[in-house]
Specification:
The protein is α+β, with helices and mostly antiparallel strands and 345 residues long. It starts with 11 loop residues before the first helix and ends with a strand. 30% of the residues are buried.
Length: 345
């Protein structure tokens, strides 16, 4: 007795299953094999139709054609939407590359006891990730800056320790005592707002996140065309967003507060120094894979974390606004690529 041919499913189920396999194949081809988006999509469509036909039966040509068109248009629209959002983010980022007039560092004087003291000061106004507004002055004494700037960094690498962790620890101990005016400002906010442990950490980190990004190079800064596109794109919009000839490619905490030009580890070292002063269990994490530095905080929270010596450190991005503890950009959120190089406890 002859068997009847298996009939195809031409309804929504066929489209849903084909869409699932299209997404799966597209991600694999584009993200893992590096195949261009258009070719990866076409290949994924063919793959999904073949696999769906094997599972649900062969559909008629008209249904296959209409399904392919629907899926192609969906992916094309999705790609256009993502590109549009990326442009908006890029536009917002370019607006954050420069300071308002009030936020720029100014040389002024303050009164300490009966003495008039020359300081570098930036009046900061920022909002944390939960909509709370803050105002404070990041202030350092001119004499502290001159004294520390005139002393060459005397860091000597100890082969028994990790290189970057040893450097960051040295900078924290070297510059920490000269940040007393900054510590006093944060303490004043802490007391006036009656912040809890998490709220205070959020307030400190977002204050530094709010500072526009600058590159810090160990060599002299070059014109934008001398760098890879990710760097050149920023320098074309903001040529002054770069400071060069800095030992180890990092600004010390006091130097950073004197000009507010800081990259990733310039920021993590400053925040680490502040939070350590306030007795937080804080860490700095580096990634050779991502060429980046982030903060870790041992505090009750949810999100992405790294376990170290039995403790859970919530990972925290410091170079861009709107990232809370435990939230990392998808471009570098693989925890296996992050290593803790320094902890405060």
């Amino acid at each position: 007795m002859a068997q009847t041919q298996k009939k195809g499913n031409n309804g929504c189920l066929w489209l849903i299953v084909a869409g699932f396999f299209t997404i799966f194949a597209f991600v694999f081809l584009n993200q893992f094999l590096g195949i261009t988006s258009t070719f990866a999509l076409l290949t994924a469509l063919v793959f999904s139709i073949i696999v769906t036909s094997k599972i649900l039966g062969v559909s008629n040509k008209k249904s296959i054609f209409s399904t392919s068109i629907v899926l192609f248009l969906f992916f094309f629209t999705f790609k256009f939407f993502i590109g549009f959002i990326a442009q908006l983010i890029d536009a917002d980022f370019s607006e954050d590359l420069t300071f308002s007039k009030n936020e720029q560092v100014k040389k002024t004087t303050i009164l300490e006891a009966t003495d008039s003291v020359v300081v570098y000061q930036s009046v900061r106004q920022w909002t944390d990730n939960f909509g709370n507004d803050y105002t404070g002055d990041l202030t350092i004494r001119e004499r502290d800056f001159i004294t520390l700037a005139s002393q060459p960094l005397a860091y000597r690498f100890n082969s028994n320790n990790n290189y970057w962790g040893g450097l960051y620890d040295y900078l924290e101990k070297r510059d920490g005592p000269s940040l007393d005016l900054v510590m006093n400002m944060f303490q004043t906010i802490h007391e006036s707002k009656q912040l809890n442990e998490m709220e205070f950490a959020e307030m400190v980190v977002t204050c530094i996140q709010d500072i526009p990004y600058s590159f810090v190079f160990s060599e002299a800064c070059e014109p934008a065309e001398f760098y890879e596109e990710s760097i050149a794109r920023i320098l074309r919009k903001c040529p002054e967003c770069c400071i060069g000839n800095q030992p180890y490619g990092i600004q010390t905490p006091v130097a950073f507060l004197q000009n507010l030009k800081g990259d990733c580890d310039t920021r993590t070292v400053l925040i680490y120094t502040i939070l350590k002063h306030f007795n937080y269990d804080v860490a700095i994490l580096n990634s050779d894979f991502y060429l980046h530095s982030i903060l870790g905080l041992n505090i009750p929270a949810t999100g992405t974390y790294k376990i170290y010596n039995g403790k859970k450190y919530m990972l925290w991005e410091t170079t861009a606004k709107y990232y809370a503890a435990g939230a990392l950009p998808v471009s570098f959120n693989d925890v296996t690529h992050w290593n803790i190089v320094l902890t405060s406890k």
